[in-house]
Amino acid sequence: MSETNPAATAPVTADAAPHRYTAAMAAEIEARWQDFWDAEGTYAAPNPKGDLGGDPEVVAKPKKFIMDMFPYPSGAGLHVGHPLGYIATDVFARFQRMTGHNVLHTLGFDAFGLPAEQYAVQTGTHPRVSTEANIKNMQSQLRRLGLGHDKRRSFATIDPEYYKWTQWIFLQIFNSWYDDEVKKARPISELVAQFESGERAVPGGRAWGELTEGERADVLGEYRLAYASDAPVNWCPGLGTVLANEEVTADGRSERGNFPVFKSKLRQWNMRITAYADRLLEDLDELDWPEAIKLQQRNWIGRSEGARVDFPIDGENITVFTTRPDTLFGATYMVLAPEHPLVEKFTPGAWPEGTHDVWTGGHATPAEAVAAYRAQAASKSDVERQAEAKDKTGVFIGAYATNPVNGEQVPVFIADYVLMGYGTGAIMAVPAGDQRDFEFARAFELPIRCIVEPTDGRGTDTSTWEDAFASYDAKIMNSSNDEVSLDGLPVVEAKARITEWLERSGAGRGTVNFRLRDWLFSRQRYWGEPFPIVYDEDGIAHALPESMLPLELPEVEDYSPRTFDPDDADTQPETPLSRNEDWVNVTLDLGDGPKKYRRETNTMPNWAGSCWYELRYLDPHNGEQLVDPEIEQYWMGPREGLPHGGVDLYVGGAEHAVLHLLYARFWSKVLFDLGHVSSAEPFHKLYNQGMIQAYVYRDARGIAVPAAEVEERDGAYWYQGEKVSRLLGKMGKSLKNAVTPDEICAEYGADTLRLYEMAMGPLDVSRPWDTRAVVGQFRLLQRLWRNIVDENTGEVTVADVAESDIDEDTLRALHKAIDGVRQDLEGMRFNTAIAKVTELNNHLTKVGGPVPRTVAERLVLLVAPLAPHVAEELWRKLGHTDSVVHQDFPVADPAYVVDETVTCVVQIKGKVKARLEVAPSISDEDLEKAALADEKVVAALGGAGIRKVIVRAPKLVNIVPA
Hints:
Largest sheet: 6 strands, mixed
Number of domains: 5
Number of strands: 31
Oligomer: single chain
């Protein structure tokens, strides 16, 4: 629903005040000052050197680097929910400029991605054409809001001069390995030198010089931080591409398009982010981030201590990771993930003698059982597979492994509740201590051995148990062999003893495991950064030299990857790039003469460009370096309070906790290790803004109807004569409840929109949009205007009086506002800052008469970060020729901030009997005398004696009668 404000939109008539602040006047003022800021370069932040160098005095100021999360230029444009964070960072940046900082605040566009490609598939429009049009539209909308961005630093990730450096960073990662001894990345050439000299043994025992080029490439691939491998991936035939885990919904479907996703093995590029798991965890402690985001990252990384244990089978080992090696004696079977690479190897041609019927799934051979079960598991999501309430399913593969602590032969199953993506993809099943294992054991008639003394009275006879018993407090039992006994030990001591035995006997080793998996970095799409990789005739990957960057996307006739029957898991991707044979097959000289090569035809994921964009803002036109070291050190280097360096303030949604934020941290650490940057972390302070919500109206079919056309009658909501439901939710075009900033700017002006969005509530909580309430902030600006400008003549009405001649109430109101607004803006409490500005403005209106010039000027300066256009206009009308943007923010006089009096509550028997206005500095003795002399207190005591007086000056006196 929408209402208009007649005062805002009514045309100026002969009877109306010709200089009243109206929507038309706001539009004229705002457009004029936006042009002025652009022409004057008002928001240009100088670098200490280079093409963006500037005033040394400005560079000498303390710096502030303030960023918003990269926006994606959608064809739908902005609704009023989108600019919330952008306005907030703009207000904060403006305040920082006025408090003596050199502020870098700009905005670019994260422009690769699937939406533009899907639009290209539907319309035949090149993704660059539609994306650049969307960027232009979004820039126009953002400019209208008066955002103070340094436009010299803006770019889009689709600009070749930008993604040249994205490709360059990929090559730095490709040509690096993680040295566990020094805990940092090092150039791959140093690893090769170690192999060549014999300092490091070559896996397999041969000398480096004896290996073929292909064998060397395979060895280095096991170390590189960017590597290609055949691994289980999320294959989505309906999209024709593989997806990262984070792009798959909880019910096993694609986040975009809602197609089924299957587990499949494909050769893909990966980033070895797991090498940095410990550092990614440890450095979280030094970041000024919301605890909820830190917790999400900690849980996603999922560090756990335990042991790797080898279960021998047919001369090899199945290795499991367990956090409870103390329960090894209770392992009565094993389970492999259906995708485990050893399944085929250990699956025999026939069922072993004595195989239980319930284990076979009704199949004639183990191979048939395994194939059928794998097909069944591939159609389920990880969440579905691990659901606690579901019936446990699985199948015996026909083989037995040996439990290393007691020599028992334990059957090996595959079951979907074990995932290849966690641990080793294999578990030792201890049904007495794990509920899932317990349910599986009961379903498949497997032994359940009690190895922890129950403390809940259930006894040790597991046949009577209804569920598993897990405890870290109980003692171990039934757990000993000829070399080690855990019986009677508490869990911690038992874990240490069995781990020591495993290592001594060669059956296992203590280790740390992580839930975090390596980052799948390939996409079967067109609209993404091409990999700077070519393959020779032997299939060996070679990096392109820097001189050949950027490798630009070629033209293709069909932008879509080949899609398949969404339910057909047995398909393989076919990428759009692979169809351009002239681009794919090339002759290049990579330093050893011209040779034929085949280009990589996958593209990078859309996350690649946003992994490092903060660095490009620093030095956006540098074609020779990723970033000049001195410039990077100036804006992002470590300093007091920022031990790892990084952006001073980063504002965006909480939905990127384990995607963009984790990936960007990984790239920063690699670049730091290799000496390219001084900051080991990209973002020091993170702030998550809330969401602007809107009411969604639905008809009887559940279909959203246009919110603007809904009428409210008698407490119900109606659309075209039909009653509809109302529910608060997201704002968006598809929900037919979007309100564009253009609409509000046209109706009230951008300053009003800015004030309303900042005044709606605390920035970090969600809040409902109400178009009818916008007018409140418009009226605030009208009152502000009237306090300084005569609406009939347009002349300034302020009084030129000395500070000493201003009444004390006004001075007190002014300085309290200055003190409060300063604190609120520093703490990003914009809603309360606006309330304090409103209070001061109302005071001036109530006092009446001309506002003292010094009061008016400071009021305008308080408003400047929040409503910059009207502030600039009033500042100029007050006689100033320089921009308000770089004026000093007012400083409060402490003498006027402290209250003259405070209210003291006087209680008798705990009940309030009087309130006294006293000086804040009053002593306990004087306050007691004043309280006992008060008429109300005397009357309440009625002549009774006093046993005790408790004084807490200046706010409380408690009298206890005799």
